[in-house]
Amino acid sequence: MDHNEQYHLVCQAHDELLCLKCIEKHNGCKGIISISKVIENVKKSSLFQETQQSLNDINRNIETLQKELTKQQGSIKHQEDTILSQISDTRNKINDHLNKLEEKIRNEVSDITAKLKNDMNQTLQILEHKRGNTNDAEQQLKDMERNATDVQTYLGLRKISSETATTESFLQSIIRDNSLDEITLILQIDDKISNIINNIKTFGPVKVQTTPCQISLVRHKNKQAQIVEVKMKISIADVKLRLTKIIKTGVSRINGIVSLPGGNIALSEYTDSPGKVMTFGSDGVKLSKIIVEHANSFDITYIDDRTLAATSPFHTHRGVCIIDIKEKKISKFIPTNYQCYGIKHHDGSLFVCPMRRGIFKINPQDGSSTAIVISDLPTLSYIDIFDNKMFFTNDGTKSVTCCDMDGNTVWIYKDETILKCPRGLAVDNSGNVYVACRELNRVVVISPDRQQNRHLLSKDEGLESPGAIHFDRKANSLLIANYN
Which pLDDT tens digit goes with each residue over 115-128? Predict the structure, then answer.
């Protein structure tokens, strides 16, 4: 209650300021102290400093949120431009296709009518000729009646009668061969074109897909507080690549690529036994050439700073080679009873793509293996693992499959126009899946939920039968190797 009198006391139990008239209502309260004691050194108190720090934190947090929202506004504008461009491109493609169809059908109509007119003109010319002959015969008959002898008339009459019979037979043939049938031209519009007008009511739905933004606000009063950190997942519309380096390796038939510490890379050359694994420095200089004795090397994966693993589908030496890149030799060979192609190291295990088997998990210590996914995979399938999910390509079905670590399918992306001859694949820190399409000379990216895709690189950027691809999640860089 406000008594319009000066405050003298503070009730700590109720956190209230008290005047002398208020004391009666707080007789039973403990912790009533003089206000002079409370305000002593208040400007140097922890409360003053904490309040000041909280205000600073609030300003910083507001600035962070403003920056994030401004960034998202820019991203929305970019996505809007991209979608509008896709709409225009689609419209132009439809227009171009319809223009070609129109030109084709117009030419077809012209060809048909031209032939019909030509056939009729030929018949008209013959009829005109017959009419002239008939008129001549009539005149001859009149002349014979006036001037010819009976013998001449008889002979001439025989000739005219024969010609008349021939002409009558010709006229009857015109009726019999349907030359005088009435012609009606009918254009039957394809139902699919009619469906565009009648059934297609929209270009397609525009959906708003949200991705949680992990923002920890600065709050120094909270001992668990962290400095503000924004972790945004990058959508495929926002993926931008900048070419940083081209390395001329001189290596042919590259089927595996992986990044090494210090910006170095390793490549696998898939040839008949023996295979080869080569390492290159960040400057493109070859560092080593490791011969895979009695086997070959298809795909490779990074295990630790000195160890790689390479698959060998060689018919007499099937298995996985453990490679010591420091000693430049094969330290161990794990035999299998199946041909392995793609390989990925994850949590101490090796995951491989055996032909006609599926996905197997190999223990590199004892060589034991367990089937995770049962699938009739063709040769040249690749695998990557991210966020406790496995992703693998299938050239036979022109698809990419995502499944959990127990082998349960999460989704399958299949589109022969997009994934023609899919080879290597790699997953970035946002879960976007990059696929090298060797036959189309392109790299495409598929969204984590497989609902979107985008052509990222093509032959224009120097791709020639790309097969091996790797995403370095620490350096945030994409490595792509042409087959030759």
Answer: 989 988 988 898 88
